[in-house]
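Troubleshooting: if your tokenizer reports a length mismatch, compare your output against this known-good record of 179 residues.
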Amino acid sequence: SLGYSKELIQKITLSGLVHDVGKSKIDIDILNAPRRLTTEEFEHIRNHVVYGKEICLNSKIVDDDILGGVLFHHERYDGLGYVEGRKGENIPLFGRIISVSDVFDALTSQRVYKKSWNHYKVISHIIQNSQKMFDPEFSSSMIRVFGMYPPGTRVKLNDYRIGTVVASRKDNEMQPIVQ
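Known-good structure output:
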């Protein structure tokens, strides 16, 4: 939707696929802990981005853009993220893009320590945090592509029937195509 070249999209895709590879160096009991983490455990998990970059380099993935997605996908647009506290345009492009999709995936997935959110709640969260956590260009683009009600979302129609969103309308994200 942003008009990127096929080559750039392929690189973003690869970065997205490997962005959390560093979690493979985190103890599974910490990753799946059904409790609040200790400060030390949380710091260890935060290091997955550094571990991920190391794993990529050891695997001969040396492209700076791809590595930027791996290392900087937890930076926040307002500068309150980690690993370096980068802000706005100082966060590499791939990091800003992957940040939005990573949060979408995390919030819509059920984990041992949390229930999944419905798509509408996640999209609302992304909208509310545009310019705080997320680059507004990429949060807006995601909503344009998926709509306010992504495919698979169950909705109650104004005549009280229940439907499932099958597609969003490019001209009106608020009125999806419903089955």
